[in-house]
Design a protein that fits this description.
291 residues; alpha/beta
């Protein structure tokens, strides 16, 4: 057995993180099953729940997040769909990497390996932030398997990041203070304070104890790559998004993604899936129902 890559600065940090993760999962609003799927990149942790007879919806969290971040969306979305929430390999979560993916092709190989390991053929996929980037990769490499793509709060994939966002990320990485990290989370949350809870604390722990050796795969897609996404696409973005310029995302997405439904959610920031769950959950469900 190959040795798993270290995600945390030390064992104490790892224990604190997983203890808090378990506390978050106690808030999962419907019965669920946990599983580990073996791939060439390591073991991927997934949460399965919802209507087993319904269409499959794969969920991918944002960078530094975990599948526990989908708690505000699960009750509504699991009524008609079978949910597979995936902990992205190589991030700070329950997945256990023996190596990380270093190209779009490798990321697609990893995720389709997880899907195959679950015995799933056709599925829809939804990602938020970095998760939407990974979802778009799979939509380019495995379009015949994907019924629809749902993009929430995209980062670099369609439009470049704003400098202020980069500076904010770097500041949280170098600052030892939890207050710096909380201020960043507030800023991306449309400048509204986050409700103190287990998931907020989990995010802080991940930012505080994440190994600096961990790297994410992220870059702009080319015009040719984006034009290859031909399945129905729903793209939701907050009017107060700070990672990218909303107008830039809208113009490029509408120009290159032909089967696109684009909607701006008023008074919402980058944490769209949790911040405005009561608004976006019905929009997503209606989109899925219309397929």
């Amino acid at each position: 057995m190959s040795e798993y890559l270290s995600l945390f600065k030390n064992k104490t940090a790892e224990s604190l993180f997983f203890e808090k993760y378990e506390s978050c999962l106690k808030l999962w609003p419907v019965p669920y099953e946990e599983d580990y799927i073996e791939t060439e990149f390591g073991q991927t942790y997934v949460i399965k729940c919802g209507n087993k007879k319904g269409p499959v919806l794969v969920l991918l969290h944002g960078l530094g997040g975990t599948s526990a971040g989908w708690v505000p969306n699960i009750k509504e979305l699991s009524k008609k769909t079978y949910i597979i929430a995936v902990d992205i390999l190589g991030d700070v979560n329950k997945s256990k990497a023996i190596k990380t993916f270093n190209s779009n092709k490798e990321a697609a190989d990893w995720l389709i390996g997880v899907i195959n390991g679950l015995g799933i053929d056709k599925f829809s996929i939804m990602g938020t932030s970095y998760g939407s980037f990974i979802a778009m990769i799979l939509s380019i490499f495995e379009p015949q398997r994907i019924e629809c793509l749902i993009i929430l709060s995209p980062t670099v994939s369609i439009s470049k990041l704003q400098k202020e966002f980069w500076f904010g990320v770097l500041k949280t990485a170098v600052s030892p203070f939890d207050s710096t990290k909380m201020n960043f989370l507030k800023w991306i949350n449309a400048d509204k304070p986050l409700v103190p809870n287990d998931y907020t604390e989990l995010l802080i722990l991940g930012m505080k104890y994440r190994s600096l050796k961990i790297k994410s795969l992220i870059h702009l897609f080319s015009d040719n790559e984006l034009s290859q996404i031909k399945m129905p696409v729903l793209l939701l973005i907050g009017s107060k998004e700070v990672a990218t310029r909303v107008d830039d995302v809208k113009q490029r997405a509408e120009r290159l993604i032909k089967n696109l439904t684009f909607q701006i959610i008023d008074d919402a920031g980058h944490t769209l899936s949790s911040e405005k769950a009561e608004i976006i959950n019905p929009i997503i469900q209606d989109f899925l129902n219309g397929l």
